[in-house]
Amino acid sequence: MFLIGCSSNITEEDLIGGYWIGTAGYKDGKPVGEPYCVPLVIEGLEFKEDGVVYVEDYDEEFEYWLKKSKHGGMTLNFRGEHHYLSYFIDKINDNEIGLTGKDDYQKNESCYLERK
Question: Which of 4, 66, 100, 108 sits in a 20 to 30 Å window from 77, CA-based?
Answer without folding.
Answer: 4
